[in-house]
Amino acid sequence: MPDVTEATGETERWAGLAAIPGLPTTRASAGHEDRARELQELARDAHAYLGDALGTAFSPTVVVAAPDDWADNEDGAPYGIPYASETELVVVIPATAADNPLVDTYAQVASREDAARFADLIAVHELGHLHVRETGLDLPLGWLGELTATYLSYCFLAAHRPADAALWVRVSRDHAAAVTPAYRSLEDLDGIYFDVGPENYIWYQDTLTAMVEEVHAERGPAFVLRLRDAGLTPASDTATTLAAAEAIHPGFERWAATLRR
Ligand SMILES: [Zn+2]
Questions:
Q1: CA of 238 to the centre of ligand 1 (A)
Q2: SS3 letters for 36-75?
Q3: Of 83, 95, 122, 216, whose CB is crowded by the most CB atoms within 10 A?
């Protein structure tokens, strides 16, 4: 549990925004309270599901920030890309779909309404990152960290928001098919990460969803607990993370080989 009396960084950064009553702790830019309440409900249900499934217990903060607040507070992160704090239990979500570059990206292959919903659901992916970390699974930046966050998000959506789960899969698949990526391998994602470029990075995220859907059907949230016990560290290389996933669910190595072609 974070010690709120020593809150700094992300938590303190957002302290000036309005507090939305209820849990999880939610802060919103002025004028975006209704949307913050909707996202709070989504985050609350996902957080309860994941806590039950994983045995994780912590108090996240959800921030719904408008461009002015985001720009004033966030050093360098482009507006609209949701993120989870690396060190604190904070998920930051853009307040306005109209300014969100991810909505424009996904609206190339879906209705604007579906693209906006997809972008909102990324909040659950970000919450997934926090739950992965709180299980004690400390992963390198790269494919397995992104896969596990989407994995937990998808487990929740499939169980409690099946229409959203179907939308997530459909939009991911259609966007992946519309992009010709320069980089395709998990090794490249691990080595280059966001510097593969925004479009290629989103292609990777889309592509992970296909494997998430397959593994989820057989393994459920316990997949992440088994990974936690595999001895991975932030220094583990791609071959090591892939072997750990393969040991739990045969098929990862074959899938990774199809990406490399
Ligand atoms: Zn992520």
A1: 17
A2: HHHHHHHHHHHHHHHHHHHCCCCCCEEEEECHHHHHHHCC
A3: 95
92/142 same-domain check: no
Distances (CA, A) of 258 to 106, 155, 173, 239: 24, 24, 16, 15
- Within a domain: residue 104? no
Domain membership of residue 17 as a residue range = 1-96
The residue length of the chain stands at 261
What's the pTM?
Answer: 0.93
Q: From ligand 1's centre to the CA of 100, what distance in Å?
A: 17
Tell me the per-residue pLDDT of 174-215, one tens digit each, with 9 for 90 and over.
999 999 999 999 999 999 998 999 899 999 999 999 999 999
* 149 shares its domain with 254: yes
Closest CA to 81 of 191, 202, 209: 202
Residues 168 and 255 in one domain: yes
* Tokens 């507006």 belong to residue: 79
